[in-house]
Design the sequence.
């Protein structure tokens, strides 16, 4: 887990690279979609608990909207990864769906495998067929539907682990 000393893209808290042992765990193959999170909101009637908001309501152009008493995704974005969710909202969704947020170590293993690949698909630079990224010939400035890049899957077949949206983990 972590980065090697020669990784100039790594953040300071990613050093040093070290061995971590994990118990067996499950991780979803894709991110939670807007439609899935809307179902959670509709079943729970309110979008907060204990004065902790589940959504960032300060967003100017939200993806999830409350219309006629029902939460729904903007048209065409139902299968995109949910965004504008708070860490508390992600935890509440996990509780509701009988899941949990992965630890940082679990997320990293699911993304990189046991060989410490630089990216989920290996060590090669991002290309348009493996990830939604901001660069090169395929500049994409919005999310894509979950599972849009099967060639970028991780060694454990997890999809969209790099380049679609940032994902929460249970620890820092």
Sequence:
């Amino acid at each position: 887990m972590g980065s090697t000393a020669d990784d100039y893209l790594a953040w300071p808290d990613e050093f040093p690279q070290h061995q971590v042992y994990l118990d067996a765990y499950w991780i979803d193959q894709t991110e939670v979609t807007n439609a899935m999170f809307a179902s959670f909101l509709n079943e729970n009637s309110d979008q907060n608990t204990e004065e902790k908001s589940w959504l960032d309501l300060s967003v100017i152009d939200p993806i999830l909207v409350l219309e006629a008493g029902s939460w729904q995704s903007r048209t065409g974005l139902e299968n995109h990864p949910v965004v504008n969710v708070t860490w508390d909202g992600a935890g509440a969704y996990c509780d509701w769906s009988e899941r949990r947020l992965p630890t940082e170590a679990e997320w990293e293993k699911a993304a990189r495998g046991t060989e410490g690949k630089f990216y989920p698909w290996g060590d090669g630079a991002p290309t348009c067929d493996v990830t939604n990224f901001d660069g090169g010939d395929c500049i994409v400035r919005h999310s894509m539907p979950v599972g849009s890049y099967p060639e970028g899957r991780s060694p454990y077949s997890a999809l969209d682990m790099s380049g679609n949206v940032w994902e929460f983990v249970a620890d820092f």
